[in-house]
What does this fold into?
Amino acid sequence: MRDRYTAVWNDLIGIIANPGSYPTETFLIRYSLQTIVHTIWRERNSRRHGEESHDVAVLVKFIDKAIRLKLFAVKSKGQKYLEEGLITWFGSREG
It folds into this structure.
């Protein structure tokens, strides 16, 4: 997953719109983007309503935790192919 890193919006849309042959990787990429956008949106709304802003490190930890919790929830629902999602996610994290 690390080897497909991109900061180019059109490339990112292409990766999301044309999933590869790996359903776990596709799920992780799509859910990660969804979680990142939602976190940024929440932070923006908090700031607009006068709440204290969060450091980037706090937001990154929130995103990581949200994705891990989603993977645990999906795994517990019996979708076995996503069990490797946890392994993939932890393997993609910088140590």
Notes: The mean pLDDT is 81. The helical segments are 9-17, 23-48, 56-76, 83-92.
